[in-house]
Write a structure and sequence with these properties.
Elements (H helix, E strand, L loop, with lengths): L4 E2 L24 E2 L16 H12 L2 E6 L2 E6 L2 H9 L5 E3 L3 H7 L13 H11 L2 H28 L3 E2 H18 L12 H18 L11 H30 L8 H10 L7 H30 L3 H15 L15 H13 L5 E6 L3 E3 L2 E3 L4 E5 L1 H4 L45 H18 E5 L8 E4 L1 E4 L3 E6 L2
Parallel strand pairs: 4-10
Antiparallel strand pairs: 1-2, 3-4, 5-7, 6-14, 7-10, 8-9, 11-14, 12-13
Helix pairs in contact: 5-6, 5-14, 6-10, 7-8, 7-10, 10-12, 10-14, 11-14, 12-14
Length: 486
């Protein structure tokens, strides 16, 4: 758990709109006991940051502070406070100010991290490309990639071998995202070498570490992991630049045709007079989509499969549901069928609710502001804990139970009086995740394919699968055993 705790004020319920007789300073909020100079730095493991903050929240309440050296940070799981901060972007709040410099150094300052006036045009472009109505044209490709995943799992089931599920799912999402972005089939699911997947996987953990590092040592000297990051960044950049060259050539040969993929749409915008969109912006957003599309969806699916492995009765229910929709088909064959897979979307959303891959949202106050009677000075870091509200019975009936039906027909969880605002997996406000609908489609495809064709069981003690925080929250490892079913 933690060291001893300093409780400076009694815990009480607060909302973003409650009236208080006097403002509270950050110093007035409860805080864990720390050390002079270091604050609470010695108590934090970057790979378990979310777990430590959640543990402190259980002791201290929904809003508290801790210190990194002399800097005091506000942590909140209060839904109304979180929503008020998230919706007041980019005016009152921004992402943590350490994020953009780090992504700039990596050449990846895209729609996720960019701030100020540069954000909106990038956001608009990505939103258009990932809009729900665009996904139908992408469905045949996603179906094809799902069939590859099916064959991969069939080989494992026929051989009776354990399956590295996280690796399989990461390959699936890399293939899907690369095809959407580039119109190129990289086929990591069947290739013997998964270099791009490996290099992409090396970037997120270092990005997470650098964003939260107390000192930017890598700007003065480098450790072996920093040289490895440089190699991975170089490999990814080479891959993306090759794709850009191919796209440029196709656009040169057929200038009158509409863009065939997201990369071509970005390049077309880049070439418009006074677009304000540079070559670096194109590269940064392509990398952002590759990274976000790979990690978050793959990890959410992995957690869903980890949970399903311990629920054979639910697996049987899902198999029947898949047979009802797919019939003799082994994967969803028509885009219209995906609208009938609500129970599988419910499985995905329940997994995200209980094992969210986004347990922390890092914000910073642009100006001195007030939330729920708490005065937040300009420059204060605000860490939003997203999971506690999702596991609160006040927000979800029987919140500790894995109940996919609670989402069926109600994507936002409105059924039976659930608090729709408590689900913050995709964020909220102007910077709501633009890839939500693509992620949902991919997860329905995978879970329906899994349930139609296989039962799944743990290949090792499930306790060996631990939560690891590296900008997204992922399983430390996940080996499962698949068995084919008719």
């Amino acid at each position: 758990m933690t060291d001893s705790v300093t409780q400076t004020v009694p815990e009480r319920t607060i909302t973003a709109h409650s009236r208080t007789t006097a403002k509270q300073r950050l110093e007035d909020l409860p805080a864990p006991r720390g050390l002079p100079l270091l604050g609470n730095l010695h108590q934090l493991d970057p790979k378990q940051l979310h777990a430590q903050l959640e543990a402190w929240g259980q002791e201290l309440g929904s809003s508290f502070t801790f210190k990194l050296g002399p800097k005091r940070i506000l942590v909140t799981s209060n839904v109304e406070i979180a929503l008020s901060a998230l919706k007041n972007r980019p005016g009152h709040f921004r992402r943590l100010s350490t994020i953009e410099p780090v992504t700039k150094e990596m050449g990846m300052n895209g729609v996720f991290s960019v701030e100020g006036e540069a954000w909106r045009p990038q956001r608009d472009l990505v939103m258009r490309a990932l809009a729900p109505q665009q996904l139908e044209s992408f469905f045949p490709t996603l179906q094809f990639i799902s069939e590859r995943l099916l064959r991969r799992w069939q080989r494992s089931a026929n051989a009776g071998t354990d399956t590295d599920v996280l690796q399989d799912l990461t390959r699936f999402t890399v293939d899907a995202t690369a095809t959407l972005v580039f119109g190129k089939d990289v086929n990591t699911l069947e290739a013997g070498e998964d270099a791009i997947q490996r290099h992409l996987g090396a970037i997120f953990p270092i990005l997470s570490y650098r964003v939260n590092a107390p000192l930017p040592y890598w700007r003065y000297f480098k450790l072996p992991k920093d040289y490895q990051l440089d190699r991975s960044l170089k490999a990814v950049r080479g891959f993306v630049e090759e794709m850009i060259a191919h796209a440029r050539e196709r656009m040169r040969r057929a200038p009158a045709e509409k863009p065939h993929n997201l990369l071509e749409a970005m390049l077309a915008l880049r070439d418009e007079p006074n677009s304000g969109f540079s070559d670096d912006d194109v590269y940064a957003n392509i990398c952002t989509l590759l990274l976000a599309g790979e990690d978050t969806t793959a990890h959410s699916l992995a957690w869903a499969m980890h949970i399903l492995a311990g629920k054979p009765e639910l697996q049987s229910q899902l198999h029947r549901a898949a047979r009802n929709v797919l019939g003799d088909a082994r994967v969803p064959m028509r885009f219209a069928d995906t609208a009938k897979l609500g129970l599988f979307e419910g499985v995905a959303f329940e997994a995200m609710r209980m094992r969210t891959v986004a347990p922390l949202i890092f914000l910073e106050a642009n100006k001195t502001t007030e939330l729920a009677g708490i005065e937040i000075p300009a420059g204060t870091a605000v860490f939003v804990l997203t999971r506690p509200a999702s596991l609160d019975d006040n927000n979800y009936r029987d919140a500790k139970a894995f109940t996919p039906e609670r989402w069926v027909g109600h994507r936002d969880g409105t059924r039976e009086g659930h608090n729709t605002k408590a689900f913050l997996h995709f964020g909220a406000g102007p910077r709501f995740c633009p890839g939500r609908y693509l992620a949902s489609l991919e997860m329905k495809m995978v879970l329906a394919t899994l349930s139609r064709n296989f039962s799944v069981d743990y290949a090792e003690d499930p306790e060996t699968t631990q939560e690891v925080f590296a900008f997204a929250m992922m399983p430390s490892r996940l080996r499962l055993r698949l068995s084919a079913i008719a």
